[in-house]
Amino acid sequence: MKKIRLAFIALFPVVFFVGCASYEQEARTLRAHWVQGQFNEANRVAGNALESTDTDDLLLWQLEQGATLRACGNAEETVDAFEKANRTLRHWEETPEVLLSSEALATLTNLSALPYRGRSSDIIMLHTYRALGFLEAGQGDAARVALNAAYQAQRDAVDRNAKEIENAQREAEESAVNIPSLLTESGLDEKLEQQKQTLADVRVLADYVNPFTTWLHGIYFLHAGTDGADAERARVSLKRVSEMYPENNYIRSDLDLAEAGKSTSEPLTYVVFESGCAPTIGTVRVDTMLFVPTGRGYSVWIPVSIALPKLVLSDERKYWNIPFFAYGEYVPGDVMPELIPPLSANCVPASEICDMNSIVRTDFDNAYPAILTRTLISAFLKSAAAAAINAASLEYANQDDSGYGALVSFAAHLGSSIYTYASSDADVRCWQTLPQNFSIVRLKTPGSRRVTVNVGERSREVELLPGEVNLVVVKTTGKTGAIAVSQSVLK
User: Fold this and answer.
1) Integer Cα distance of 199 and 84 in angstroms
2) Which of 347, 421, 434, 484 could form a disulfide with 475 if both were Cys (CB 3.0 to 4.6 A apart)?
3) Which domain holds residue 107?
4) Which long-range contacts (CB under 8 A, 24 or more apart) does 88-95 make?
5) CB within 8 A of 465, min separation 6: which ones?
6) For 11-40, how does the pLDDT look when each residue is reduced to its tens digit (9 = 90+)?
7) What is the spatial distance between Cα 46 and Cα 40, in angstroms, rounded to a whole number?
8) Based on the structure, what is the number of domains in the chain?
9) 277, 437 in Cβ contact below 8 A?
10) Which helix (H) or strand (E) holds 163?
11) Res 395: pLDDT
């Protein structure tokens, strides 16, 4: 019985991983509908995934549900979904980073075994979408709170990332894993350098600044502000965005108003275009041999598989022929994609205000040192454990003459090899339904109070709500599919 139990333990990890539900499959299905502009189907996938998910992925699927509900035009449900996500976020913020059971499981498997607490860019965009939802629901005071939360999240992200790196470095020291040596021995350093070159032309932003969030913060306090402090908030935010996009005259016009300490003197309409799909997370894998200790006074060579996340940029054209006002343009592949008619409102062309490729890449780059360190620790410790198990099973086989020892040794070697490979998957969880680009049009509100928005060859007429300053948001994920339109009043 002891022999059978030992063989079962060796094979248990294999059974465990075969039975695990696949986040990747649900995410691929969601993304497929989203790219095609099939918002209702995407919402159905997100809703089903949310119902069946465990606590670890709860925040992620709440974010997906909020975004898909927003695209479907369900304003009240959207606000409710993002508020639930905000409560989950607060729960994780109040929960200690180190959860012994989760950290131990992550060491034995991979980082996807840890709870998804949200990337810094996710947190900022969550509060941004909360603010838009409150504005559309006519809850200006709640929108103010959400915008301030988004502004604070950008400042907190710097300290948050520094703490993550510090914790990872401490874990490396405690586990006695030589990270630089492991990178070189595995050949992973060369692959990481190749990956870095593929992103060389994608702009990296400073200090987690999200230009769209900062712009929205600025125009809200410019037009809905109540005192001098609000006017200063508007000036600071608009100045910061203007420095990032110095040739964008739409931003410049609002900054001029903010510096003069006044709002607009004529009816004004902003049209925001959310276009394309943000990057996703893929996997770069290295299968190699490492010289690891067996725990019995000697070391052996053992196969090890190391999987790390990599940024996968969208295949869609980044800009819909939008005037480019920031350096670092990215063109996917070696061939220029087909030109698409520009995004516009009443024939006024849209101008970029935020590139989510840059937002996600900045967040990804900043988080990568901690992810790399923890992944290599996990790979080394799993390999060391496998080496120890294999050595013990071989010793047992040499002492057993019945034939069971050979079976146990074979099962242990097979089980440990499959386990180390199957458990090396990278953590590819990410917010799938974010846009790739934000661009804006700023125009005098027409007397008809109707604005025609153009998205490629498609167009839609929008009848504006009563108000002096209007905000219209247009979402499109590709050349075809639905166009989602929502609007609110700033003043």
Assistant:
1) 34
2) 484
3) 2-489
4) 88/58, 88/59, 88/62, 89/59, 89/117, 89/118, 89/123, 89/126, 92/59, 92/117, 92/118, 93/117
5) 487, 488, 489
6) 444 444 433 447 788 988 999 899 888 999
7) 10
8) 1
9) no
10) helix 140-175
11) 59
Per-residue burial over 224-240, b = 16 or more CB atoms within 10 Å of its CB, e = otherwise:
bbeeeebbebbbebbeb
Q: What is the mean pLDDT of the chain?
A: 76
For the chain, how far is it from start to end, CA to CA, in angstroms? 77
Q: What is each CA distance from 26 to 31, 101, 113, 311, 369, in whole angstroms?
A: 9, 26, 17, 19, 28
* Residues ≥6 apart with Cβ < 8 Å to 73: 484, 486
Q: Which long-range contacts (CB under 8 A, 24 or more apart) does 79-88 make?
A: 79/130, 79/133, 79/134, 79/137, 82/126, 82/129, 82/130, 82/133, 83/130, 85/59, 85/126, 86/126, 86/127, 86/130, 88/58, 88/59, 88/62
Q: Provide the residue type at 133 as one letter.
A: G
Name the residue among 374, 405, 379 with its Cα closest to residue 392: 405
Strand partners, 286: 306
Report the C-alpha gap between 87 and 218 in whole angstroms. 26
Residue 296 has pLDDT above 60, yes or no: no
**pLDDT above 50 (res 345):** yes
Query: Which tokens sit at 168?
Result: 């990872």
CB 139 within 8 A of CB 490: no
**How far is the CA of 104 from the CAs of 98, 109, 374, 387, in angstroms?**
10, 9, 12, 19
CA distance 13 to 416: 8
Distance CA(77)–CA(457), nearest Å, equals 31
Lay out the sheet containing 268-275: strands in order across.
Answer: 351-355, 437-444, 268-275, 469-476, 484-489
Distance CA 288, CA 480 (A): 44
C-alpha to C-alpha distance for 214 and 242, rounded to whole angstroms: 10
